[in-house]
Design brief:
The chain is of the alpha+beta class. It is built from nine helices and 44 strands. Helix 4 crosses helix 9 and helix 6 packs antiparallel against helix 9.
Amino acid sequence: MKKVKSLLSIVIIVVFIATATFAHGLTLNFDGADHDMTGKTYTVEVNGKTVDTDVPAFLLYDKYPVIPLRAVFEAMGGSVDWEQSTKSIVVGLDNWIIKLRQDEKEAEINGKIYTFDVPVIAASSGSYGRTMVPLTLLSDLLNVETNISGETKVISVEYIKPENTPAPQSSDKPVAKPKASPTPSPSSKPDEPSRGGGDRPTVPAATPKASPSPGAATPEPTPTPSPNNTQQNTPQPGTTPSADPQQSPGPQSPEPAPSVVPSPLPELEYVITDVLYFNSDGTERIEILFNNRKGYKVTRLSNPNRIVVDFNDARAGVIGSRTNTIQGSIVKKYGLTQYDPTTARVEIEVAGTPDYDIYLSGNKVVLVFRVSNLRNISYTGDKDRVCLLLKGAKLTEGEAAQKKLYQEQYSSDGRTYTITFPSNLADLGTGRLTINDKYLDSVVVETNASKSTTTITFNAKEKLSYVIFTRTETNDTAITLLKPRSTAEKLVVIDPGHGGVDPGAVSGNVQEKTLNLDIALKLNKLLKEKGVNTYMIREDDIFVGLYERAYIANALNASLFICIHNNAATATSASGTETLYTQENPYDKNLFGKRFAQIIQESLVSRLKSVDRKIQHRPGLVVLKATRMPAALAEIGFITNSYERSNLLREDYRLAAAQALCDAVIKALGELK
């Protein structure tokens, strides 16, 4: 009896210590700074049981309750996973599929977008980091009963499994298929980084993360300590959005959408029932089983190299990710996901750039993989910029002159394009790369030993333009595939400055390139919502040459070119917004580039309430002088100024900058003749 009493005493002491840790002297790190959360944290109970979590629920900005995503949803019987293709946290809960991204105020629920008052954030305590979501995700969007007690500091959740809509059913075939479980296995579970990571993989400061805009990729600037807002010309309160979210919300984000209970997944008869892998005498194949024959689409993606097969109007046998890691020489991983409410996706990660055959056989789609002799070649076809990258290749020299070291030829119908060059300019091997996307059927590399030449043949689905550019900075050649727009189609090219090996300005561990990309992605989303045709020079952390950017815009017959940057100065007191232009562009006969810069400057200063540094004439800037359309370069703010840097690290401020740029582009398009 004494032993039982002693053990009980120890348990009580441990529980008391754990509770005291949350209640007294708790410091949490979020928004790039440490915050004293004493008295602001809450215990979460799901159906009367306390949720075990190392980072507690708390009041964000002393007002908005946020809860630890994984702990609460797993307590409700759901699963939390990471979807690499969309850089999203994916939550499966009965008849809901919820996609979230860090620093966003949005959730995609069964394919529809809903908004919050505050973004999804990462909060950490000591060595633990968790993704925190607004409680309104449960109470308003999922219609789950919640209650907050300020007296007991308890958030209670009452969750009753829905009865009117059956939960997704898994395939009952037990052999050779990926296993699904409520909690991802250690090999597939998202990392739990020690600082600000939450339920997603750690992303280095130099690598942009997924886009805060749904469906696009987004950087997340690495947090920095809270700035000391004592710079010499720091704007006075009331003239610029506050750097402290607890003092001022800053520029206003769009109003939240009305609370709507999401509809369940549509009933679909086309079901992908299984995915099987076979390796027979070194021949590897994937078989995808289904219950009704319909169409499918296969594409090749990169980073990592993948073959993706999408089935439209189809349901995956199991909701959520199912991934198998294997030891094939070609196939490394394969999995089945419900990519969106009406698309089942099979994603196959492969080593290198193998070729494959794909065909229908009864109630299955079969992919047979072949080892390719190709090397130093990769293809990106899932973004605006479709590109074949040749590592270690030199096919042009000079940037402005662009001397061609190759010969080119189109077929009579314009669909086949070939380039031939001395083989010593690129070590590519030989072989075929099956593509099957919107532009290409395949790429074939052949060599002529007697002539010591290499030929690359692009078998396209229509006539395309090709921009071939060798980058001395990265020792590679990029071949960008483009479909030029007619002059009647107004196209806006968005160029996020810097990228890849070029970080731009750096202040502490904040890199300009990530801020530029995030604002550009937001601008792209806003313009598309307005029906504007856009093209992104880069959508992730890659290097693109300066002249290369201009040549791509020229080949597209773009109407406007907007380049997004942030500024830096030796004097940390320097602050404000400026927009750059040139009058040396011979194609800009009406000097509309200067007018475009003025429209951008006025819109940014008006919305951000930043210091007006006016428009500046910069004749030497490559992207302004080499483009054949009105072009302007926006310098949003100074990352070397602690006050402006803290603003730029805020998601709502970057969204406000993107909205200002969107307004400017819409106005400029209206004035453009």
